[in-house]
Structure prediction request, 816 residues.
Amino acid sequence: MKSHLIRRLTHQSTFTALAVITLAIGIGANTAIFAVVDSVLLRPLPFPHSEELIDADHTAPGVSLEKAGSAPFLYFAYREGSRTLEHVGLWRSDTDSLTGIGEPEEVSTIDVTEDILAALQVQPVLGRAFSKTDTTPGSPETVVLSYGFWQSKFGGDRQIIGRGVVLDGRPREIVGVMPQDFRFLDLKPALLVPLQLDPAKTILGNFSYSSIARLKPGVSLAEANSDAARLIPGALNQFPPPPGYNQKMFTDAHLAPAFRPLKQTLLGDIGKILWVLMGTVGMVLLIACANVTNLMFVRAQGRQHELAIRTALGASRWDVTKELLGECLALGILGGVAGLALADGALRLLVALAPTNLPRIGEISIDGASLLFTLGISLAAGTVFGLILSFKYTAPEINLSLRAGGRNMSHSREHHRARNALVVMQIALALVLLISSGLMIRTFQTLRHVDPGFTKPEQLQAFGIYIPPAAVKDPEAVVRMQEAILDKVSALPGVSSAAMTTVIPMTGNHWFDPIFAEDKVYADTQIPPLRRFKLVSPGLLKTMGNNLIVGRDFVWSDVYDKHRVVLVSENLARELWHDPRSAIGKRVRESLTANWREVIGVVSDERDDGVDQKAPTSILLPLFMDSFEGGTPFVQRGISFVVRSDRAGSSSFTAEVSRAVWSVNPNLPLASVRTLGEVYNKSMARTSFALVMLAIAGVTALLLGIAGIYGVVSYSVSQRTREVGIRRALGARNAQVTGMFVRQIVRLALIGIACGLVVAIGVIRLMSSLLFDVSSTDPITYIGVSLVLAVAAVVAAYIPALRANAINPIDALRVD
Prediction:
């Protein structure tokens, strides 16, 4: 039986190859996307009992803050009083300057309390984890190395424990090395650094941290949220408010827990994109299956006389069904094997195209679940083919089939309807996929035309510098050194301008604080809405390409003379004073006891969270101030430089910038070296990823649909040879003969397009969250795609229909 099956498939090698290739495309695409979905969405996090891990986030609806993060005062409250959390810890991502090991280097770090690794249930492979002593203020400073950093910097030296490294000018003792497969969520820190927090010096606020906790056994997420809600009022009364604020302000912010599974925080909204892509490639598989089914119909038509004879000679219907089903299952399995090979290459392409902020991208692989999925859809596809063919071609109409005589056997209307229905389905599904990709193209075009608030980002080179207190203690000396670096970089060949800022747009670094306007009335307990804060140098507006709407920019005398001046964004000026011109001369402050600062300029809005998000209301402050929130002289030691040059992004320019920095201080490494063009593109990476994937699926569906139409018309021409001969003998012109076949496809295409439009209107609403400023029922996309598909269908039908004009009437009439 097996040898008979192999001979039959190899005998019709063209048919087998076409069927296997078509199935491989559909199955391979589905396997690749399933591997991504399984790796990213379905697998648990790589920690023991990861379902117990939560992100202890908070919300503050009183100040319109949906995701507030966490703070030290909440950490201490939960650590001491929680009945539902087994471990709770604080963390934040950071960078530190590493010196003493080759050239100065900025390395990624994670600042953590000692509870974090206990919550994750991960232990170092060498040395120890942090203890409470490590996180006690005043204790000797320690550090734990990542496995990769240990290997690259110290060659895997197992005697490393007890040795030291210098971070930000301060020596730290190495106490441990993390496992090789350790990932902190989706971050890959070089070092773990202990947070040294003092409960006696902790105040309300300071929501610049995140928190990870582990639920006690048997505790639900709802119970943990309820328990935290019980503790928050006590924490608000236990810790003092910062200068210029009072406890009632924090109470009126309505701070509440918003605990969620840690996995949910890690994944964010990527699931929407991946499930849309999964549905998309599922449609590609359906189109491929429709194509193969039509091929099977063609092949079975040629075997119908043979099957009828076998039945007449005593073969049961089940015998015939088994043979057809066996052939179809064999094709399905062959298609699955080829699809698996195709999926491996497709997966590499997916990972290469995937945005760098796609969570768990390093874990994507074809594993046992993916293999089972491939086997399942391969067997399912083969079974469906086999059952359809068995239903159509094992009916007991033996005498009719015997009298029909093989090649000239007339085809029943039922068989025609089945093939036509498959063509309609292909066209409808292809339309849905093409509309999906068309809407993403429209979205991408719309996003590209959104003004981000700065110009020519590809010409803007950005890098960060941190000047530790160990290197320069005096705050003004820090600013002097920053300006000296700025002067050196500005003097480089090809640099048109340079400036400094604490926040590079679209990088996710946010600093929020309220703003009180002098001419507005606030209750003593009222906190105004939070605004985006930035410290900037003179010349940033020119360098970035921001527009100064009214007023003036900062000058260096504002910095060194500590003038109490600010710039505000246009949307903030309009919100507070209705007209940007009215903002000039107004005064604002960051707390009820802070000094008033005069508004000297209004700048254009900047889409700091990405071009698909509204521009936040922002306030810009000088680099150096006599005080901030009522404190001592304030300077930002970590600053980002922005340099405008046609040479931005080149390795030679980066090397020259590094030398310019080191000419001022040889111990200052450059951090986060990149162009704003890279940042801008990264902000749209998920949209680009969805666009490319949907476009690939749409084009694949279109090609499969065209191939299906081509095959149907080609087969129709071959089967209607006698009819064509008679028509030509009776005087039918070439155009009439060709039109006979084209009109059939045009009717099917119109029906398929109509069905596809109905399906698309319902289905594409599911991807509306991926669209920007484009309706899910955008008429331009729907009409344009329908026309493209209709033209493609006509062309696919017209080419094989031309062969009908070459039929010789005399030869056709001789056909038996």
Notes: The first helix runs from residue 2 to 11.
